[in-house]
Amino acid sequence: MTEAQASAGRRDGAGTGRSAPGTPCWVSLMAHGLAATQEFYGALFGWEFRPGPEQLGPYARALLDGREVAGIGQLPPGRQLPIAWTPYLATDDADATAEAVRHCGGTVGVGPITAGQAGRMAIASDPTGAVFGLWQAARHLGSAVTRVPGAPAWNELVTRETASVVTFYETVFGYTDEAVVSADYDHLTLHVEGHPVASVHGVGDALPRDRGPHWMTYFEAADVDDAAARVVELGGQVVQPPREGPHGREATVADPEGAVFTLVRSTGAHG
């Protein structure tokens, strides 16, 4: 991640603040227990909540110091879907992008539908099964702040190998890619208009069998070790202990319902 990522994809002019197509602009979690999930993240990140569009059922937007950073919704009773954080990728035309997803071998599971006056959305998956959202902004532009403690910091696609799937994302969203120079050779950064916005990590046989290919959301933490310990105190668990990673010090954790995310103290993000 670089300083450019903080404003990556934001367009100049017209004062719209919309993200350029392909830029991750929002993250959302669908959980079984909405109240308990809000309590967990409120205690961990200092989030407060207010009701959001409820086209898919009860939904709340998380606020950090009064600014929207994420969404949490409630799964319909009986729906046995994976509990996972999902990034939403910006688009100027959700219907056209959904059609491109299908044309390139992906699947559209929900929508496109209009979410009140907020915008138009869809939930899709790439050819390997990794789930992501599409967001065509109207009144709701997405996360109002990133890379400060308690806010989204980064999104990474964790997959078996990058070569086959990166073509899908480049074709649908117009990304360019750049290899990450590290000991782990199968690691790419996706760029929009010259700015790094997300990454793709091929982990081979280390891919979790119970999850398959998936998008990982990173949340900024002032102190990763303290935050990981707090997750456990609040009923979650540590999946991978704090360590030095490519983006800074990080730890992979899960909330009480099993939604996995990564805590990170981004290099240079907050002094």
Automatic annotation (TrEMBL):
Under InterPro entries, the record lists: Anthracycline_SecMetBiosynth (IPR052164), Glyas_Bleomycin-R_OHBP_Dase (IPR029068), Glyoxalase_6 (IPR041581), VOC_core (IPR037523)
Please report a single Pfam family linked to this protein.
Glyoxalase_6
Protein name listed in UniProt: VOC family protein
- The segment(s) forming the VOC domain are 23-137, 151-266
Gene3D superfamilies named in the record: 2,3-Dihydroxybiphenyl 1,2-Dioxygenase, domain 1
Q: Where is this region: Disordered?
A: 1-20
Organism lineage: Bacteria, Bacillati, Actinomycetota, Actinomycetes, Kitasatosporales
Organism the protein comes from: Streptomyces huasconensis
Q: Which SUPFAM superfamilies match?
A: Glyoxalase/Bleomycin resistance protein/Dihydroxybiphenyl dioxygenase
